[in-house]
Amino acid sequence: xxxxxxxxxxxxxxxxxxxxxxxxxxxxxxxxxxxxxxxxxxxxxxxxxxxxxxxxxxxxxxxxxxxxxxxxxxxxxxxxxxxxxxxxxxxxxxxxxxxxxxxxxxxxxxxxxxxxxxxxxxxxxxxxxxxxxxxxxxxxxxxxxxxxxxxxxxxxxxxxxxxxxxxxxxxxxxxxxxxxxxxxxxxxxxxxxxxxxxxxxxxxxxxxxxxxxxxxxxxxxxxxxxxxxxxxxxxxxxxxxxxxxxxxxxxxxxxxxxxxxxxxxxxxxxxxxxxxxxxxxxxxxxxxxxxxxxxxxxxxxxxxxxxxxxxxxxx
Length: 315
What we know:
This protein is of the alpha/beta class. The chain contains ten helices and 14 strands.
């Protein structure tokens, strides 16, 4: 099983897949990027368009390929599937996207693929579990983009609220990447200072209603973007770029990716977005972070929804 650590593939060249490809071009993480799509012309067109920017970007090869091109890829990013429409939840996409995921995984399994599967298609937690189950790969090699995007949204909004650089905000959204997600306020801090202490030092107030308002804005962000422009693509591209960087550079970064749980938090038989350590091998460790009572209840409620969704699938 020969894996090229600097070769990646993106399966699905819609708005999200193309935006991720553009982000990879900017980052210079890979020497070869392969684009796959059910519409071969679309994949070829995106590869041509992206390649036009290479003189002003990083040194890499961008090509349209087939599933045979995946055999030596270190990372395969799956974005293929139906997009969320105005008024739809991510869970509404299960019926349409599970069949697509099954077809993709069957094609990948037929090749000697030894890399990491990074699921981005929605509902990402359900599809991450399905990809793991269908592929038979070890769980460290099958992860989802999870709530990395939602966490970024929380950091940005909290930074604006507190008038501080969002990169100094350390906080997580966990659970489902969807309506049952929750904010882990009990562990939030600003460069090591507990949120409450930071606000006290600055003479600011962040009340429970303020926290609830910020959480709802994070949770509903995708709906608002989709209502206005029809699709979300740039934020998720940045989030996937962050995950890919941690894999390629072996950063051991803590990111709330979607992972298959095997006893963590007392949960089994599902995938949820949980802060985890990510490195060259994919998932390195799931962190069982302390949760207060309300956060624990939110985790259980989110897990129950995911279990119910998974039970409808013939895996």
